[in-house]
Amino acid sequence: MKKIILFTLLFISTLYFSQQVHVRYLMVLSPYTTSHEDVYIKNNQVLSIQDSIITNNKLTDSWTLAVNLDNGRKPSKKYFVSDLNNENERNFFFTANVDSKDFFIYDKVPQPDWKIEENSTKTIAGYKCTKATGVFRGSKVTAYFAKDLPYSAGPFKFYGLPGLILDIRVDNMDHEIWKAESVDIDDKTAIAFKPQFLNNEKVSLKAYVEAKEAHMNKIFSKTKDLFSKAGSNVKIVTNQRFTVEQKYEWEE
User: Fold this and answer.
1) CB atoms within 10 A of CB 41
2) Does the residue 171 lie in any domain?
3) Residue 68 contacts by C-beta under 8 Å, 6 or more apart in sequence?
4) Which residue segment(s) compose the domain that 172 sits in?
5) Strand positions, DSSP E, 53-205
6) Is residue 249 part of a domain?
7) pLDDT per residue over 118-135, tens digit each?
8) Across residues 149-165, what is the average pLDDT?
9) For residue range 171-184, what is the model confidence (pLDDT) as tens digits?
10) What is the sign of the dihedral through the CA atoms of 74, 168, 30 and 34?
11) Tell me, what CATH number does 137's domain have?
12) Lowest mean pLDDT: which of 150-159, 160-169, 211-220?
Protein backbone atom coordinates (compact mmCIF):
# COMPACT_ATOMS: atom_id res chain seq x y z
CA MET A 1 0.00 0.00 0.00
CA LYS A 2 2.85 2.39 0.89
CA LYS A 3 4.47 1.71 -2.49
CA ILE A 4 1.22 2.56 -4.27
CA ILE A 5 0.91 5.85 -2.35
CA LEU A 6 4.55 6.73 -3.05
CA PHE A 7 4.15 5.94 -6.75
CA THR A 8 1.00 8.07 -6.91
CA LEU A 9 2.74 11.02 -5.26
CA LEU A 10 5.72 10.72 -7.60
CA PHE A 11 3.39 10.53 -10.60
CA ILE A 12 1.48 13.65 -9.52
CA SER A 13 4.73 15.50 -8.83
CA THR A 14 6.17 14.55 -12.23
CA LEU A 15 2.95 15.57 -13.97
CA TYR A 16 2.86 18.88 -12.11
CA PHE A 17 6.41 19.85 -12.99
CA SER A 18 6.03 18.76 -16.64
CA GLN A 19 3.32 21.36 -17.14
CA GLN A 20 4.28 24.86 -18.19
CA VAL A 21 3.45 27.62 -15.72
CA HIS A 22 3.02 31.21 -16.87
CA VAL A 23 2.77 34.14 -14.47
CA ARG A 24 2.18 37.68 -15.71
CA TYR A 25 3.35 40.41 -13.36
CA LEU A 26 2.62 44.10 -13.30
CA MET A 27 6.05 45.71 -12.91
CA VAL A 28 6.20 49.21 -11.42
CA LEU A 29 9.41 50.75 -12.72
CA SER A 30 9.09 54.25 -11.25
CA PRO A 31 6.45 56.51 -9.71
CA TYR A 32 5.40 57.29 -13.29
CA THR A 33 5.95 54.15 -15.37
CA THR A 34 4.79 50.55 -15.36
CA SER A 35 5.39 47.58 -17.60
CA HIS A 36 4.93 43.80 -17.46
CA GLU A 37 7.09 40.76 -16.83
CA ASP A 38 6.18 37.24 -17.93
CA VAL A 39 7.71 34.26 -16.12
CA TYR A 40 7.55 30.77 -17.65
CA ILE A 41 8.54 27.60 -15.76
CA LYS A 42 8.77 24.03 -17.05
CA ASN A 43 10.93 21.01 -16.20
CA ASN A 44 13.07 23.00 -13.75
CA GLN A 45 13.76 25.66 -16.37
CA VAL A 46 12.82 29.32 -15.88
CA LEU A 47 12.55 32.05 -18.50
CA SER A 48 11.54 35.59 -17.58
CA ILE A 49 10.77 38.28 -20.15
CA GLN A 50 10.47 41.94 -19.19
CA ASP A 51 8.33 43.76 -21.72
CA SER A 52 9.63 46.65 -23.81
CA ILE A 53 6.29 48.47 -23.66
CA ILE A 54 6.28 51.24 -21.06
CA THR A 55 2.81 52.29 -19.90
CA ASN A 56 1.14 54.68 -17.49
CA ASN A 57 3.78 57.38 -17.84
CA LYS A 58 2.00 60.29 -16.17
CA LEU A 59 4.63 62.81 -17.28
CA THR A 60 4.67 62.15 -21.03
CA ASP A 61 1.99 59.48 -21.63
CA SER A 62 4.60 57.57 -23.63
CA TRP A 63 7.97 55.86 -23.31
CA THR A 64 9.90 59.09 -23.98
CA LEU A 65 11.77 59.15 -20.67
CA ALA A 66 13.05 55.61 -21.10
CA VAL A 67 14.03 56.17 -24.74
CA ASN A 68 16.03 59.30 -24.02
CA LEU A 69 18.32 57.34 -21.72
CA ASP A 70 19.60 55.40 -24.72
CA ASN A 71 20.11 57.86 -27.58
CA GLY A 72 16.51 57.78 -28.76
CA ARG A 73 16.46 54.01 -29.15
CA LYS A 74 13.27 52.24 -28.17
CA PRO A 75 13.50 50.04 -25.08
CA SER A 76 14.04 46.37 -25.88
CA LYS A 77 12.73 43.31 -24.10
CA LYS A 78 14.99 41.84 -21.42
CA TYR A 79 15.40 38.11 -20.94
CA PHE A 80 16.45 36.28 -17.75
CA VAL A 81 17.36 32.58 -17.98
CA SER A 82 17.88 30.28 -15.00
CA ASP A 83 17.22 26.78 -13.65
CA LEU A 84 15.54 25.72 -10.43
CA ASN A 85 17.88 24.34 -7.76
CA ASN A 86 18.20 24.13 -3.98
CA GLU A 87 21.58 25.82 -3.74
CA ASN A 88 22.52 29.05 -1.97
CA GLU A 89 23.51 30.64 -5.28
CA ARG A 90 21.81 30.51 -8.66
CA ASN A 91 23.17 31.21 -12.13
CA PHE A 92 21.27 33.82 -14.11
CA PHE A 93 21.96 34.81 -17.71
CA PHE A 94 20.28 37.99 -18.88
CA THR A 95 20.24 40.54 -21.68
CA ALA A 96 20.55 44.32 -21.40
CA ASN A 97 21.41 47.36 -23.50
CA VAL A 98 23.71 50.24 -22.65
CA ASP A 99 24.41 53.19 -24.94
CA SER A 100 23.00 51.30 -27.96
CA LYS A 101 25.25 48.31 -27.23
CA ASP A 102 23.74 44.91 -26.46
CA PHE A 103 25.04 42.98 -23.47
CA PHE A 104 24.64 39.34 -22.45
CA ILE A 105 25.50 39.01 -18.78
CA TYR A 106 26.36 36.12 -16.47
CA ASP A 107 25.32 36.67 -12.87
CA LYS A 108 25.69 34.35 -9.89
CA VAL A 109 22.97 35.55 -7.53
CA PRO A 110 23.14 34.74 -3.79
CA GLN A 111 19.91 33.60 -2.16
CA PRO A 112 18.43 36.12 0.27
CA ASP A 113 18.23 35.09 3.92
CA TRP A 114 14.44 34.91 4.00
CA LYS A 115 12.38 35.14 7.17
CA ILE A 116 8.95 33.58 6.67
CA GLU A 117 5.94 34.87 8.61
CA GLU A 118 3.51 31.95 8.53
CA ASN A 119 0.64 33.86 10.15
CA SER A 120 0.74 36.73 7.65
CA THR A 121 -1.07 35.80 4.44
CA LYS A 122 -3.08 37.32 1.61
CA THR A 123 -4.65 36.15 -1.63
CA ILE A 124 -2.96 37.09 -4.90
CA ALA A 125 -4.23 35.98 -8.34
CA GLY A 126 -6.44 33.41 -6.60
CA TYR A 127 -3.65 31.84 -4.51
CA LYS A 128 -3.14 32.03 -0.76
CA CYS A 129 0.30 33.55 -0.25
CA THR A 130 2.58 33.68 2.78
CA LYS A 131 4.71 36.67 3.71
CA ALA A 132 8.51 36.63 3.76
CA THR A 133 11.07 39.37 4.28
CA GLY A 134 14.72 39.52 3.33
CA VAL A 135 17.56 41.60 1.92
CA PHE A 136 18.36 41.42 -1.78
CA ARG A 137 21.62 43.12 -2.79
CA GLY A 138 21.30 45.92 -0.29
CA SER A 139 17.54 46.42 -0.48
CA LYS A 140 15.06 45.27 2.13
CA VAL A 141 12.25 43.46 0.33
CA THR A 142 8.90 41.96 1.26
CA ALA A 143 7.56 39.01 -0.73
CA TYR A 144 4.43 36.87 -0.79
CA PHE A 145 4.78 33.34 -2.13
CA ALA A 146 2.28 30.58 -2.96
CA LYS A 147 3.02 27.18 -1.41
CA ASP A 148 0.50 25.63 -3.83
CA LEU A 149 2.92 26.54 -6.63
CA PRO A 150 6.01 24.58 -5.49
CA TYR A 151 8.62 26.45 -7.52
CA SER A 152 11.49 28.33 -5.90
CA ALA A 153 11.32 31.19 -8.38
CA GLY A 154 9.83 34.61 -9.03
CA PRO A 155 10.20 37.65 -11.28
CA PHE A 156 13.55 39.26 -12.10
CA LYS A 157 16.28 37.43 -10.11
CA PHE A 158 14.21 36.64 -7.02
CA TYR A 159 14.10 33.07 -5.69
CA GLY A 160 14.75 30.97 -2.61
CA LEU A 161 11.30 30.52 -1.06
CA PRO A 162 9.30 27.24 -0.84
CA GLY A 163 6.81 28.47 -3.40
CA LEU A 164 6.47 30.79 -6.37
CA ILE A 165 6.78 34.49 -5.49
CA LEU A 166 3.63 36.30 -6.65
CA ASP A 167 4.31 39.68 -5.08
CA ILE A 168 7.61 41.32 -4.16
CA ARG A 169 8.57 44.92 -3.52
CA VAL A 170 11.29 47.07 -2.03
CA ASP A 171 10.27 48.30 1.41
CA ASN A 172 9.20 51.96 1.75
CA MET A 173 9.22 52.66 -1.98
CA ASP A 174 6.42 53.37 -4.43
CA HIS A 175 8.19 51.51 -7.25
CA GLU A 176 10.43 48.45 -7.74
CA ILE A 177 7.26 46.37 -7.35
CA TRP A 178 6.21 43.12 -9.02
CA LYS A 179 2.67 41.81 -8.51
CA ALA A 180 1.10 38.84 -10.28
CA GLU A 181 -1.94 39.70 -12.37
CA SER A 182 -2.60 36.16 -13.61
CA VAL A 183 -1.35 32.59 -13.18
CA ASP A 184 -1.79 29.84 -15.79
CA ILE A 185 -0.60 26.42 -14.55
CA ASP A 186 -1.11 24.74 -17.93
CA ASP A 187 0.17 27.33 -20.36
CA LYS A 188 0.49 26.29 -24.02
CA THR A 189 2.72 29.11 -25.26
CA ALA A 190 5.67 27.85 -27.33
CA ILE A 191 8.70 28.93 -25.30
CA ALA A 192 12.41 28.42 -26.02
CA PHE A 193 13.77 28.04 -22.51
CA LYS A 194 17.33 27.97 -23.87
CA PRO A 195 17.35 30.88 -26.35
CA GLN A 196 19.94 31.23 -29.10
CA PHE A 197 21.64 34.12 -27.33
CA LEU A 198 22.92 31.71 -24.68
CA ASN A 199 25.68 30.94 -27.21
CA ASN A 200 26.75 34.60 -27.37
CA GLU A 201 29.84 35.87 -25.62
CA LYS A 202 29.06 36.60 -21.98
CA VAL A 203 30.33 39.50 -19.87
CA SER A 204 30.51 39.57 -16.11
CA LEU A 205 27.94 41.39 -14.03
CA LYS A 206 30.66 43.73 -12.79
CA ALA A 207 31.70 44.71 -16.33
CA TYR A 208 28.06 45.39 -17.23
CA VAL A 209 27.41 47.47 -14.10
CA GLU A 210 30.54 49.55 -14.74
CA ALA A 211 29.48 50.23 -18.35
CA LYS A 212 25.92 51.08 -17.30
CA GLU A 213 26.96 53.46 -14.54
CA ALA A 214 29.58 55.19 -16.71
CA HIS A 215 26.85 55.83 -19.30
CA MET A 216 24.41 57.12 -16.68
CA ASN A 217 27.05 59.44 -15.22
CA LYS A 218 27.62 60.92 -18.69
CA ILE A 219 23.89 61.64 -18.86
CA PHE A 220 23.94 63.23 -15.40
CA SER A 221 26.94 65.34 -16.41
CA LYS A 222 25.21 66.60 -19.58
CA THR A 223 22.08 67.39 -17.56
CA LYS A 224 24.14 69.36 -15.04
CA ASP A 225 25.79 71.35 -17.85
CA LEU A 226 22.41 72.21 -19.36
CA PHE A 227 21.11 73.49 -16.02
CA SER A 228 24.32 75.47 -15.46
CA LYS A 229 24.05 77.16 -18.86
CA ALA A 230 20.44 78.03 -18.04
CA GLY A 231 21.60 79.70 -14.83
CA SER A 232 20.05 77.11 -12.52
CA ASN A 233 22.03 75.95 -9.53
CA VAL A 234 20.77 72.35 -9.47
CA LYS A 235 22.71 69.62 -7.71
CA ILE A 236 23.02 66.45 -9.80
CA VAL A 237 24.12 63.36 -7.86
CA THR A 238 26.07 60.79 -9.86
CA ASN A 239 26.49 57.06 -9.20
CA GLN A 240 22.83 56.66 -8.25
CA ARG A 241 21.28 53.23 -8.71
CA PHE A 242 17.64 53.36 -9.69
CA THR A 243 17.15 49.67 -9.08
CA VAL A 244 16.54 47.08 -6.37
CA GLU A 245 20.22 46.11 -6.70
CA GLN A 246 21.94 48.70 -4.52
CA LYS A 247 25.01 46.78 -3.40
CA TYR A 248 26.85 43.99 -5.19
CA GLU A 249 28.93 41.15 -3.78
CA TRP A 250 32.29 42.65 -4.81
CA GLU A 251 31.38 45.79 -2.82
CA GLU A 252 31.05 43.95 0.49
Assistant:
1) 25
2) yes
3) none
4) 20-201
5) 78-83, 89-98, 101-110, 115-124, 127-136, 139-146, 164-170, 177-184, 203-204
6) no
7) 999 999 999 999 999 999
8) 98
9) 998 889 999 999 99
10) positive
11) 2.50.20
12) 211-220
